[in-house]
Design a protein that fits this description.
The structure holds two protein chains of two kinds. By secondary structure, chain A is an alpha+beta fold. Chain A is built from nine helices and four strands; from the N terminus they run H-H-E-H-E-H-E-H-E-H-H-H-H. Chain A has two domains: 172 residues, no CATH class; 97 residues, Alpha-Beta Plaits. In chain A, 71% of the residues lie in helices and 8% in strands. A six-stranded mixed beta sheet of chain B has the order 6-7-8-3-9-10, sandwiched between helices. A four-stranded antiparallel beta sheet of chain B has the order 2-1-4-5, covered by helices on one side. The chains are: A alpha+beta, B alpha/beta. Chains A and B meet through helix 7 and helix 8 of A and helix 2 and helix 3 of B.
Chain lengths: 285, 229
């Protein structure tokens, strides 16, 4: 392994331009993948933020007794899908309406008459906000005779989940396509670098070097070029992220594990592409 | 040591290159493999160092059979067989010493022994003063000597030379041929492919095998055996 590392470093020193070019090609190819990952991550964050706002609101009839409300709260809070149940009294509902919808202030008058009903706001746990769960919780709330109406924006929830499915599917398909294109470009770049050193491979094989011994320095070199390319891709993506955030709109930077995956993908593509290219030359001599 | 038995080689597009060739090269022999361009000389050498496999028959080199040896084990044959070519096939941008040392390094010699051994090999081929010269600074004859030193790195049993004097002038050719004979005198077999019949006639005591259109048409060893019988 020491020989492989030494030879790989020596090869980079002997042909720095070629190695630099292949690392740059790897970097540019991975930049497309990393930018896509950044977009996919932000889409996911946005959808998650919207999803977190999904809740079931049960509007109560005027005159519902506090004991009935307490029982309903207890039963709903006991459901495994439910995180918490908040009681919003008529006065609080009116205060909220004044605060959130000031343009409708006149409609609510001076506050002597309160047309708004009390309600139970049912917040759901993470991972329990599917269409089915929301409908089930709504049905439980609706069963109480003192519940006048249950609202959870059925159409809106349906659309949100359709959007999430479309996003997941297109992320998988487009991400796969981008990764495949990047793999082809990286493969070609490293094949060119290895083609330039085919004489070395030929001579090594001619004088009796073992295949593993021949292969190792190229794999190390491919891995190094891939890793440098991956880091370069991250740098370009970071630059793009900063520009977008400064001049266009707010974005979230991808998690560290995703960034590490971009560099790891570069190294993996580098090693695999080099392995394929060397394997071809080893067969020819 | 080298045994070809009923060997044929057919290329998918070019057709047959060798047909039913049987020959035996013994330890310490000096063999000229002659014939026109495209007669099958180079193919024979490629089969011996197992760069290619025969489509028929068997090639046996120092006990390794072309029929049994796996691709991943070809290195075992390569360490028993040294090769030199018309175009030298040296690594450009490296010195004579680095070219020889490269062969020693990639075959797993101990790092501390590589440079002294490479220097000794270059001294053997008469290039002691040029060890640090870059390949392009050397003449054709000198480059071929570096290639010979490299081929000797693994102390092979046989040296295969494919038209080694094809790119050399008369003086350099004489020098390289003298070197081959010196190597042969130390007990190493030499198999040299050449189409230069003038050169072959200069060394009458060597064994001569002629190949024509892929068939072995003359072997001086058989002629001698027949004459003795």
């Amino acid at each position: 392994m020491r020989h492989a590392l030494r030879e790989a470093i020596a090869a980079v020193r002997r042909a720095p331009v070629l190695t630099g070019l292949s690392a740059a090609m790897v970097g540019l190819a991975l930049t497309v993948v990393a930018l896509f990952a950044l977009a996919a991550f932000n889409l996911r964050v946005s959808l998650q933020a919207v999803e977190e706002r999904i809740e079931v609101v049960a509007y109560l009839q005027d005159g519902t007794r506090p004991q009935e409300i307490a029982i309903a709260r207890q039963v709903l809070a006991g459901l495994p899908e439910v995180a918490e149940v908040l009681y919003i009294g008529k006065d609080e509902a009116l205060a909220r309406a004044h605060r959130d919808l000031p343009e409708l202030g006149e409609l609510f008058g001076d506050g002597t008459v309160n047309p708004l009903p009390a309600s139970l706001e049912v917040r759901l746990r993470d991972g329990f906000r599917s269409e089915e769960t929301v409908a089930q919780v709504a049905a439980v709330a609706d069963d109480y005779p003192f519940v006048e109406d249950v609202a959870y924006g059925r159409e809106w929830v349906d659309k949100l989940f359709t959007l999430r499915r479309v996003a997941a599917f297109s992320t998988a398909v487009l991400g796969g396509a981008f990764a495949a294109v990047a793999a082809l470009i990286i493969g070609t770049a490293l094949r060119i670098a290895i083609f330039a050193r085919r004489d070395e491979i030929y001579i090594m094989r001619l004088v009796g070097a073992r295949n593993g011994f021949i292969r190792r320095p190229f794999l190390v070199e491919g891995g190094m070029a891939g890793m440098v390319g991956g880091a370069f891709a991250l740098l370009l993506t970071w630059g793009t992220y900063r520009v977008v955030e400064a001049f266009l709109f707010q974005l979230s930077w991808m998690p560290a594990s995703w960034a590490a995956a971009v560099v790891a993908a570069g190294a993996t593509f580098g090693v695999l592409s080099s392995a394929v290219a060397v394997w071809r030359y080893l067969r020819e001599v | 040591m080298i045994q070809l038995t009923g060997v044929s080689k057919e290329y998918p597009k070019r057709g047959p290159a060798l047909s039913d060739v049987t020959l035996h090269v013994r330890k310490g022999e000096f063999v000229f493999l002659t014939g026109h361009s495209g007669s099958g000389k180079s193919t024979t050498l490629k089969l011996v160092h197992m760069a290619q496999r025969p489509t028929g028959g068997e090639v046996l080199v120092c006990g390794y059979s072309s029929a049994k040896l796996r691709e991943s084990e070809v290195w075992k044959v390569r360490r028993k067989v040294g090769c030199v070519f018309q175009d030298f096939r040296l690594l450009p941008g490296r010195t004579a010493l680095e070219n020889v040392a490269f062969a020693l390094e990639v075959t797993g010699r101990r790092p501390s022994t590589i440079v002294p051994l490479a220097q000794r090999l270059l001294a053997q081929v008469g290039l002691a003063p040029k060890t640090s010269a870059l390949v392009h600074e050397l003449s054709g004859g000198e480059q071929q000597r570096v290639a010979i030193a490299r081929a000797l790195a693994n102390e092979p049993f046989v040296l295969l030379a494919d038209e080694p004097t094809g790119n050399l002038d008369e003086r350099a050719t004489r020098g390289v041929m003298e070197l081959f004979w010196e190597i042969n005198a130390r007990g190493m077999a030499v198999v040299m492919a050449t189409h230069d019949l003038e050169l072959v006639r200069t060394y009458l005591h060597a064994r001569v095998i002629e190949i024509d259109q892929g068939r072995l048409v003359f072997d001086s060893a058989s002629t001698k055996e027949a004459a003795t019988a």
